[in-house]
Amino acid sequence: MPNFGFSIHSPTHIDLDKNYRTIFNYVKVKEPSIQKCIFCGSCSATCTASNYSAMSLRKVNLLLHRGMVQEVRSLTEQCLLCGKCYLVCPRNVNTRRIILLIHEALKMPLS
Amino acid sequence: MKFDWFVLPFLSGLSFVTVYTSVKFYRWINKLSRGEKALLKKYIFSRSIWTSIKEIFSESLFHLKIFKTHPLLGYMHASLAFGWFLLIVLGNIEVKFYSEYSINPPYVPIFLNFFEPTTAPNFFGRGFRFIMDFLLLIILSGVALAFFKRFVPSKFGMKQNMRHRWFDRIAIFSLWFIFPARLVAESLSASIYHNGSFLTNTLGKMMSFLPAETLLYPSWWAYSIILGIFFFALPFSRYMHIPTEVLLILMRNAGIRSRYFSHPYQEVETEACSRCGICIDSCQLTSIGYAIQPSYYLRTIRYNELHREITDNCLLCGRCVEACPVGIFSTDIRRHERTLQHEMRTVKFKFNQNKFSNTYTEVLYFAGCMTHLTPGIKKAMTTILEHSGYSWQILDEDENICCGRPLLLAGQISAANQVIIHTRTQIEKTRAKILVTSCPICYKTFKENYRLNMLIMHHSQFIDHLYTHNRIATQYRNVNVKYHDPCELGRGANIYVEPRRVIEQIANLLPSSSEKNKAPCCGGSLGNTMLQAEEKKLIAKRALSEMNLTSADLLVTACPLCLKTFSAVSSVSVKDLSQLVAENICEKIPNNAQKIHKAVETL
Ligand code: SF4
Ligand code: SF4
Ligand code: SF4
Ligand code: SF4
Q1: Higher per-residue pLDDT: A89 or B150
Q2: A50 contacts chain B (CB < 8 A)
Q3: Do B342 and A77 touch (CB under 8 A)?
Q4: CB pair distance less than 8 Å for A81 and B369
Q5: What angle do CA B221, B227, B231 make, to 5 degrees?
Q6: Smallest CA–CA distance from B399 into chain A, residue
Q7: Percent of chain B scoring above 70 in pLDDT
């Protein structure tokens, strides 16, 4: 078989009924505006941290829904809390509070 | 020695307060670091101690700063504090006239009319009685005002009263009753012995229908008991501020500041808060319905109540600090407490080092995150820099980088330090002479946290500098402008003059009742992570109406974040200072043209 440079992803099957939602729920209760996110990506486009890292709030939000804690940690740690994402968000999601709450949840013993 | 059993409640209360306060003071001072103790000791034995003594008189007793807030409110506080103080001092002197002992127990001057009921022997004695009556009258007027303030705070320049806990209420009510009780006791005594003056004698005559002999002794008991209750309640109520404020003034003038949460200086600050409620009115979150102001915040700290959301829900705008008559740096306390809550020590940033310029120019312009979202300011600054004649470049043209202050304000200190080191390296690499930034947040951080070896200027200062060195000139327009002082530039960095001078070169600057250190926050502050978008909008709208823009054609500010926040809600057009300048900049500097323009306008 000729090699076309493609490969297959390792399976990332997510069972939405069983995945780890503790952090998402923790954030949701304290900052309900996280549910208003429409994953438009405006925050990621303007993100200061995206200059030097893979930080993207849209992605963080998605990963939170899927319960992928390790990835959430490595992304949110790069945030500078500059607040640009909040200013561009069309849905007025309170982005900086969400990130602080994620930090808080990550410091708790269970996660 | 003179003694009667009824002095016991008073005496035990007084001893309790004295012992309690001494132990507390000892503990606080003991908790200071060795260096801070040395600082305090050196200060107390230096000549500058006199400024503190003066301050103790003018602030703890006379409450000069409250007078400045509102004269009637000031009179209320001063009549109680200074009046009572004089009453005690003069009482002690008066005792010397009657007593054969040189040292008297502390209750004798308080209950002098009981122990020395005979009529004043001579002119001096009568003079004393007169003064004592007069002081009592003044204090009583203060009590009456305090009583009315509970119902009509607006007459005292206040919109709201502090909502007190039951314990404070006991202390407040006992304080209110102390002086009426004294009046009753002394009047009854005057009705029998005629030993009073204009107030007590007159009242005594009016009460002559009463069985004064039987009532007199119980009335002294009542007076003593009320004093006792007040003294026992004092250390646990707001009135602990009376002794603590003295220590606070000494510590502050000695240069001690709180460095972390629950630092002893902070503990002194917490107890020195009189819960006067002046900060409640100055805070823009009050009208949104949050009870997060220093008076509430410090109370939750003092009584160890849960208050995490109060800590975070503050704009850190500093209006309350400016308004506080005691001088409590409540915004520092919040920042220290946020560090406890939000610090993330595991963070390791991997910044790009090589994306930044390392060529030399005279001026280095740092736009900052917020300016990247208001491209108008960046464009205007480009125009101005073009005209300035300096060689210049933009540091964060391609790669936007943060100054680190948002992390500092949120309490993530170790992360902020990494950002600061990175950004400082990039700035230093260019070896520029002048660092200009459009963002007051960046400006303050560069000034306070960067230790840079170059001139740091906010763009308002830079433009002002360009004018004074005749590097740019602008056309004069006949527009009425109001200027909004951004929090971080005004209260934060004390820059009030330069932006105003720049505006006056171009337009007609209107005065405002809420400007300079009283200017409102736009509501967009990065210090607050709790507010929702609608609440921020409401704050911005109310800030605009507070500034009263009816006669203005244009609102000028000097902060990209303020510009963005106000533009969204303002009916008057809003511009940044740099935009105003860039729009009116002259291609070549005309000889005195702008002065001629101005002269014509005024004619
Ligand atoms: S900008 Fe707002 S709505 Fe869009 S992805 Fe980001 S958080 Fe969600
Ligand atoms: S606050 Fe964080 S996520 Fe938002 S733009 Fe700034 S760095 Fe990106
Ligand atoms: S913080 Fe200052 S202004 Fe506020 S209640 Fe306390 S003493 Fe008064
Ligand atoms: S800093 Fe501003 S928002 Fe915070 S309590 Fe003081 S006045 Fe209110």
Answers
A1: A89
A2: no
A3: no
A4: no
A5: 140
A6: A51
A7: 97
pLDDT at B127: 85
B334, B316 Cβ separation under 8 angstroms: yes
Give the tokens for residue B532. 């929702």
Stretch B25-35: mean pLDDT: 96
CB B250 within 8 A of CB B36: no
Residues lining ligand 1, CB < 6 A?
A 37-43, 57-58, 89-91, 93, 95
Q: Tell me which residue has its CA closest to atom 4 in ligand 2.
A: A85
The fraction of chain B above a pLDDT of 90, given in percent, is: 77
CB-CB contact of A98 with A27 (8 Å):
yes
The DSSP annotation for B60-107 comes to IIS-HHHHHH-HHHHHHHHHHHHHHHHHHHHHHHHHHHH-SSSS--TH
Q: In the prediction, which pLDDT does B595 show?
A: 47
- Give B524 to chain A, closest Cα distance, Å: 9
Record: contact B407-A51, CB cut-off 8 A? no
CA dihedral (B366, B372, B375, B377) in degrees, to 10, reads -40
pLDDT for residue B121: 64
Question: Widest CA span of chain B, in angstroms?
Answer: 97
Cα separations (Å) of B3 from A42, B6, B116, B145, B506? 81, 9, 12, 35, 78
Confidence category of residue B28, pLDDT binned at 50, 70, 90: very high
* Mean of the per-residue pLDDT values of chain B: 92
Residue-wise pLDDT tens digits, B484-521: 999 999 999 999 999 999 999 999 999 998 999 999 99
- Who lines ligand 4 at CB under 6 A? B 282-283, 285, 292-294, 314-320, 331
Whether residue B401 and residue A77 make contact (CB cut-off 8 A), yes or no, is no
Strands (E), B521-572: 554-557
Structural domains of chain B, ranges and CATH numbers in brackets: 48-236 (no CATH), 256-342 (1.10.1060.10), 363-465 (3.40.50.1860), 471-602 (3.40.50)
**pTM for the whole structure:** 0.91
- Positive or negative torsion for Cα B329, B330, B335, B337: positive
Closest Cα to residue B293, out of B302, B282, B301?
Answer: B282
Neighbours of B303 (CB within 10 A): 12
Q: Which residue has the tokens 């490969």?
A: A7
Q: By alpha-carbon position, which residue is closest to atom 8 of ligand 4? A: B283
pLDDT surpassing 60 at residue B602: no
Give the tokens for residue A3: 């090699």
Give the pLDDT score at A110: 63
- Minimum mean pLDDT among A4-18, B55-69, B339-353: which range? A4-18
B182 CB neighbour count, 10 Å cutoff? 25
Confirm whether the ipTM is greater than 0.95. no
Rounded to whole angstroms, the Cα distance separating B349 from B407 reads 13
Structure tokens at B474: 């602008």
In this structure, which residue's CA is closest to atom 2 in ligand 1?
A: A89
DSSP B154-200: GGGT-S------HHHHHHHHHHHHHHHHHHHHHHHHHHHH----HHH
In sign, the C-alpha dihedral spanning B31, B35, B41, B43 is negative
Distance of CA B546 to the CA centre of its chain: 20
Digit-coded pLDDT (tens) for A49-74: 999 999 999 999 999 988 888 899 99
Instruction: Provide residues with CB under 6 Å of ligand 3.
Output: B 273-279, 294-295, 323-324, 326, 328, 330
Tell me, in angstroms, the distance from the centre of ligand 2 to residue A81's CA: 5
Average pLDDT over residues B478-482: 95
For residue B318, pLDDT over 90 is answered with: yes
Instruction: State which amino acid sits at residue B307.
Output: H
